Amino acid sequence: MVKLEELWETLQELEENEFKHFKWFLKQDGILEGFSGIPAARLEKAERQNTVDLMVQKYHGPGALKVTLTVLEKISRNDLVQRLENSSSGPKDLKNHDSVPLKGDYERTKAELGAKIELMIQERQMKIREIKHSAELSNKSADRHIADSEQVFTVFLQSVERSLANLIKAINEKRKTSQKQAETFIQELEQEISELTKRSNKMEHLSCTEDHLNFLQRFASLNAFPPTKNWTEVSVPPPSYGGSVGAAATQLKETLSKDMEKLIAKAKLNRVQQFAKDVTLDPDTANPFLILSDDGKQVYCGDVKQNLPDNPERFNSAINVLGKQSFSSGRFYYEVQVEGKTSWDLGVVKESIYRKGSITASPKNGYWTICLRNGDKYQASAVYLSVKCQPKKVGVFVDYEKGSVSFFDVDSADLIHCYTDCSFTEKLYPFFSPSLHNDGKNSTPLTISPVNDTD
Prior knowledge:
The protein is an alpha+beta fold. The protein has helices at 4-12, 16-26, 40-43, 48-74, 78-87, 104-206, 212-222, 242-273, and strands at 290-292, 298-301, 316-317, 321-322, 331-337, 344-350, 356-357, 367-373, 377-380, 383-384, 393-399, 404-409, 415-419, 428-433, 446-449.
């Protein structure tokens, strides 16, 4: 009997168009005598594994195999028909939809029950793999969030400790100033007391003489007091520390708020980077003036138009090139080095975009891109963008199901721009334009960079 894995592996061999045709046949009633079609709504977004599940649910194991063989014949994939027949432990003449005669109701019932049990086992084994994979993703996500949380709170603690240390230092400086002022006053007072004590002792000594005329003559000089300060209004009030605490708390709040924004932005970018794909440039789409590196990772505009076939995929006359890789589901991300350039375009485009002559890049025309012009003007579909600082490396993230395209400054983790509520109905391709070299001022290439995922 065929295993579910064999059916799934067989469908994996189909090209995208072949798989679409395969599902189209599954919708038809009477593909085999006594077999009705699978509802179109259930097949519309079904991937290969889901399609196998739908066939097994509808036709059971042997029936699913018969239908698969029939449809493979109709789409001219007899090589897969032969492989399935050779790998199946059931009858070899399945393509004629005949079964080996069974001896009696007992053997037929036993075989059907065995097949049903085998199917149930295989379904549960597949579910185990699915759950394990889901658990692995959950663990990976948990580890990432824990690491992000530890980083955020470590920075918070460091900010609090640094703010507290600065506050204590400021308070101690105020205390030191107050103590120094008090010590100065005390020294002055003690000096005046010393002088007055000396004058008092002399007075006491003169008062012991019986020569009253001499006393009066000497007293005149003693009666002139040494210079002293009027201490009535002098005081050393304790310094106010409450203002320092309030100011420090306010500054800490502002610092934490800025740090939190930066860290949260960085954490979001880290999570996006886990969807990084290996993107390379497609020379068959490159404008004849573009020069591509051998590894398909760099592109710049040359001086001479190359003699290349003007195939339908090639841009002419726009200075553009697409990535080789296409995406029609899920999420994907890539990064491009743009440092040193004065003009460029990046993003994604749908497969059916117009590639000849003048092009207007807009979502309406299938372009979800941003661009740099004149060294400092950033735009998204003719709308000017506010950019804090010029990015050296730009990250492009697409969520196909969510319908969004986001652009990041990789170094600062700032979000440059985001297209939302996009209606994606076909394949998307990474899009690049290094723009004209502008007499060497814009000759630096665009470079697809490896993504430094923190996992």
